Every structure is written in structure tokens, then in C-alpha cells.
Amino acid sequence: xxxxxxxxxxxxxxxxxxxxxxxxxxxxxxxxxxxxxxxxxxxxxxxxxxxxxxxxxxxxxxxxxxxxxxxxxxxxxxxxxxxxxxxxxxxxxxxxxxxxxxxxxxxxxxxxxxxxxxxxxxxxxxxxxxxxxxxxxxxxxxxxxxxxxxxxxxxxxxxxxxxxxxxxxxxxxxxxxxxxxxxxxxxxxxxxxxxxxxxxxxxxxxxxxxxxxxxxxxxxxxxxxxxxxxxxxxxxxxxxxxxxxxxxxxxxxxxxxxxxxxxxxxxxxxxxxxxxxxxxxxxxxxxxxxxxxxxxxxxxxxxxxxxxxxxxxxxxxxxxxxxxxxxxxxxxxxxxxxxxxxxxxxxxxxxxxxxxxxxxxxxxxxxxxxxxxxxxxxxxxxxxxxxxxxxxxxxxxxxxxxxxxxxxxxxxxxxxxxxxxxxxxxxx
Length: 428
Description:
- Helix 10 packs antiparallel against helix 12 (about 370-380).
- The protein has helices spanning about 1-20, 35-45, 110-115, 150-155, 170-185, 190-195, 215-220, 225-230, 285-290, 340-350, 355-360, 370-380, 415-425; strands spanning about 50-55, 60, 70-75, 85-90, 95-100, 105, 135-140, 140-145, 155-160, 195-200, 205-215, 235, 240-245, 255-260, 265-275, 280-285, 290-295, 295-300, 315-320, 320-325.
- Residues about 25-30 have low confidence and may be disordered.
- Strands 1, 11, 15, 16, 17 and 18 form a six-stranded antiparallel β-sheet that branches.
- With about 425 residues, it is an alpha+beta fold.
- It is elongated.
- It folds into three domains: about 1-55 and about 210-300, no CATH class; about 60-200, no CATH class; about 340-425, no CATH class.
- A hairpin with an 8-residue loop joins strand 13 and strand 14 (about 255-260).
């Protein structure tokens, strides 16, 4: 335990040092080899990968400009009852609290642990609004910098200025719940003095950073990889991760702690927020897709465009390793050369699945034949691509014999006979 904790401290220091010396570099670039590494590791962990997303967000914001106001404790509570993050908030001009433009609720069973606290449920669960209901209004709140970057990105209006546009994105129940939370935090007089702001993104924004989607358990395992942590500027443990960033016009790096939820199967989204700073963020999938549209899905087979050598068996480099093509098309002929993993294709066929997550994972079902599993590992997992055998070298594998599925129920494959038959057919 201590060694793992020590590793986390060292990793945090390393990220702090990297950001102290320079700004955070974009981790994703269409031509960046690091991109392929992250995608490959994500697929190996059973996760889906998408090329960015598009969004046009609606947010409710409260900015208390009184520098003498008391510091507040903010808990970002999710609809499933998990706490995404906890932090202190010092009200002042340029700093605010933010939530979604649509209403949320929390089931009474998930809210009970907060309601039973000696100091009450806090500012963001309104169980007194519907004490006999199965769910209570929830305001999922976090902090925000209201600076020039924010004003350039969002159109900022008062509730009165919406002029009937509430049903077009800003929901009246969300506005009422957020106001009630701010009254609890401060006072009714303070909220009247500094009214709720309705902020709508001026234009649809495209984010081209990688988006990783999958169950909480898979994401946790994915982020345990040190190389992945360096790519996303995070340090992770079994409880959550620290996301490091360096705001523009600020030389001092900052860290935000995000906690994993309790449901190991709940689908989460890992993405990079781009604004005043770049920071790795996490959101529940059902929330993410409510106002964001995922980009193109990146499949496990990375496709590459290469210049075909002019001579046969001439070695050339592909992103996956050194390659050779035994026959070169005639000059002026258009051709497409398809590279695929025999092992992964075999796994998909034997498992009878089209699922990318199942195919690229290193897990096998209990009823997966041992001979087929051994061949998949040998040709698709165990060795680097450049070190794998040629197909002719594995023709003697047990999978191609009479005991392909562990018992002699199918005839062995006669590869030599197939070649002779093909040559006869070619002559005819």
C-alpha cells in the first residue's frame, strides 16, 4: 500500500514539474504516434474510443461578487448519489458556481446518506420539496471561472431576458432548484443582488481530443497504466484520479480530484476539456450524450496509408511495425492492401461476435476452446507484430487438426491438398 501511495506522490511531482516548465501539450493529434498508443491501450482494456465530440452547452451560473462573503464547501453530487468532487469555494468577482440548464433528481435511497448527516443534506439536495416522493430535486454544482474566455464563449442572459426561451433549453425547474441552492449557500438578499445567469454557448464547438467510453471498472484499469496517465496528465488510484492542468496566463499548475462511482458497470466518459485550460474530465455517459455528440468511432484496426515499395519483399515501416509485400502491383494499377490480425479475426469468428470490445480484450469466455485460445494468443496477443510467425509456420497448429475444439469431431485441414486443388483450378 505504501509503495503504491509513494508512486502516486512521485507521479504527481513529475506532472507538476512538467507543467511548471511549460504549458500542457495537446495529447491528441491526427499525426501523433502517441494517439495510436492510447487507442491501442484503450481497446485492449475493452473500451470504446471516439474522435472528439461536438457540443453547444447551456449552463446556469451564480457569481457572487462580494469579496467579504464566507468561503463555501461545494460537493458535486451525481444523480446516482456518488460525489464527483469536493472543494472549497471563495466567492468573488470572476468566480462562480455552475450547473446544467436542465433539471436533475436523485432517488431517495441514494440521497438518504446525505439527509441523515448531522449537519443535514447540504445545499444541493432539496428533499423538503417533495418529502413523500421517491426522488428529490438535485443540483449538480461545480465551480467556474467567469473571465474573458468564458464571456467570449457564452451568451450571458438574465432569467427575464430569456423571453419565453426557457422551454428551448433552460428549464424553469432547473432555474428554481439552482436559485434555492444559492439561497441556502448565501441568502435570498444576496441572490436578489446577484441574480442567476443563463449562459448559452454562442456557437457549436468541436473538440477533437480523444474520448474514451466504457464501464467504470475498465476505465479504472486503463488509467492504472503509467503511460496513459502521462498522456492524460493524471495520477490515478482505485478511488479516482487527480487531473492536472495549467490555466492560461498562470505559471502555477493546478490539480482537480475526481472520484470513481460505486457502480463498477456504469458507463463513464473520459474526455479533455478545452477552455481557459486543458484538463482531463469524467462524466456519466447518459449526461454526456444529453448535450454532446460523439465524433467518429475509432475501431481497433488502425488503418494507415503507405507508399508501396517498387520491389517485392522490400521492407517498409507501418505504424504497427516493419512490413513486406511479397507481390507488387503493376505500375499504374490502383490497389488497396488490407492488413488484419489473424488472431483477432479468429477470436471474433469462434466467439461469434461483432463486438470490438470483446474481440480486442485479453479475456476469453469459459467455453472458448483451448486450442483456439492458444492460437489467438500466439498470433494476436503474445508477441509484437514484427515477431509473429508467418501463416505457413502455424499451419501445423493443433487448431487446424482433428482436435480443433478439444475433441476429434472435425477433419484436419489439408493445407497442401488445398494448394494443389487451387493450382488445378487456376490451370483450368
